[in-house]
Amino acid sequence: MHCSCKQKLEHTSIHKTIDPLEGVWKQTNFYRLSNSDTIISDSTKVQHKIYLDGYVMWTSNATIDSLEWHGYGTYTYKSDTLTETLTSMSIPLRAYTNIYPIKIDLSKEDVLKQIIQYKNNDTIYQNIELYRRLK
């Protein structure tokens, strides 16, 4: 009688789509434009975003009036548009919407540019946020 203690290994291949957003991002610059004119430029604002397995979480330093800023939810990414659907967010954000379509540019390695556009009366605003991936 012959016994073998060797186990037969099965090789399986798992193909996971690489998500270019996945990771931790730190904001490096923030700009607000009003009808294409820059009205705010800030490189001191602290904000971090985490993208992982279809979930997003972000937090930002408190504003001068001590309001906290945070968001948590899911995200989808297609072409040049990121859509964040927040299920938990700061109280002031609840007055607007919980779905944020965001134009993005990932053309530079470990650099993320997000452009959030909104309208108030006849004025078109753009928030431009630049991030770098933390490693």
TrEMBL record:
This is Lipocalin-like domain-containing protein.
